[in-house]
Model the fold of this input.
Amino acid sequence: MRTSKPPAPSSTPTSASERTRRTTRLGRPCALVVALVVGLVLVGCRSFEPVPPVPTQFAHAAVAADHPIASEAGAAMLRQGGNAVDAAVATSFCLSVVRPYSCGIGGGGFMLIHRPGVDGETVAINYRETAPGVVDPDFYERMADPAASRYGANAVGVPGTVAGLLLALERYGTLDRATVMAPAIRVAEEGFDADPHFVRVVQKLGTRRRDHPEHTQAAGFIWDQLCHRGALAVGDRIRNPAQAKALRLIRDQGESAFYSGPIAAALVETMRRRGGVITHEDLARYEPVVMTPLRGRYGPYEIVGMPPPSSGGVAMLQVLGLLERLAVVPGNDDRPEDPHDPAYMHLLVEALKHAFADRAEYLADAAFVPVPVSRLLSEAYLDDRASVIRPDRTAATYDYGSVEPAPDDAGTSHISVVDAAGMAVACTESINLEFGALVSVDTFGFALNNEMDDFATIRNAPNAFGLRQSDRNLPEPGKRPLSSMSPTIVLEDDRVVLVAGGSGGPRIITGTLQCILNCLLFERPPLEAVALPRVHHQWMPEVLEFERRWDDEEAVAAMERLGHATTRSARESIVQLVEADAQGVRPASDPRKGGRPAGY
Done:
């Protein structure tokens, strides 16, 4: 592969529809073939559970979420004539019930919406949590507890999910609150069966409770009601009538129920009892923000991502820009053929290290500090960074990005939706770590986030995901912490080609990016693209992680010969993806979490 910026390909890049027609002749739409491919990919993977045959294509519309009940809630909206936003909102409220350790009304998120048309509109909605009014840059450094930003009431940011979802529904949806919230209320009241992923999380929570006994009382509702006191088994029924009560209040009263009404009162009372600092004023001041998305090119495609405080949009556009300059681009005859080719993986990892180095130094909430997005995505800067990437070896730590030397990251969920009109939503939501701060609003049955740990709470110290961050990301009243959430929409001539995003801390960026590349660059069908084993590198620590189930030892050895320190990791990213073209809509829910798409 060349390492200089390639000339324009001599032939016209293959369009998505042309690629689909070509692969259709190879049997791509055949569910049996795709299921066989994915089954072979998953052989011997201890972290996956047997699931029924997964639908591979729908004629009109689809939702991919990490729980089948949530995907079906969104698909029900589509079948009723609702649009992609209606489906995403219904799915999100349902995930608050069935994946309460990943996301929910006690958290926040980002949403990208693309509406096709002559002037195809794409908007970004930022409903990330904010720092309470009394939290200043030194707030956590004054505390005796080094884990205060991670566990307990002081780890909680002002939640944004309810405000963000209702804003999206009011401005861009077509159905009413009662309709889109009905599935979540029903599931909370009637209950659902625990799946293997839920049981594994309960087991991990047991370990966290033993490690942090000071927070066991605060997590009482979570442990007693949702986890069956640690005795939860696959198939056990989980009911949450308390959250059903909260959802009915939101259905009837709108966001005021959460930010100034009875839910707000219960949340503030929880803070008072647990020693937290969120006040009625903090809740009343919360507002989601509609923003302009980031846009970039990768071959024939337009990539649309979230701006800061998401780091995912900048990082992914940087990496794709660097790969294009290294000739790793669709339509180029020199492009690699295998996503596990060490030569390709090396270039991908080197590009990731540049992006994560810049993330650590520059990215934060642009409403509070200058963030040089234009420079980081400029042609000149990407040309310069691409020119220092060598195909035969890795570089020294501080040769990445444009950082100065410095002293010596899951509770997240993603929804991808494409409707029959070609409207798309990519929505990533989180409460940060699993079950967030280990604090719940018991009266209304939901866990509170611990997103304050995504700030640089202790200078020069890594957060729970091992990410180092500059003083630009220090907490301030009303500021939103830097995030790795990476909802992404890929367009070709204003038509949606892919919708993707994931969970897993910084692995959201690397996982989502690899799945997108598996589709666009390697032309793999969505289920295979999502199921393939992945790698992760976040610049610091200086180690290349291979998923635990990675079985190509020669590829690992090849990366080591290029200078990469390697390890196997049990940590995973969980990606939800939908591919669309004139032949249909092909969703993929990551089998690592037992998700399953739905559509019609």
User: Anything to note?
Assistant: Confidence is low (pLDDT under 50) at residues 1-51, 403-409. Residues 209 and 216 are 6 Å apart (CA to CA). The longest strand covers residues 424-432.
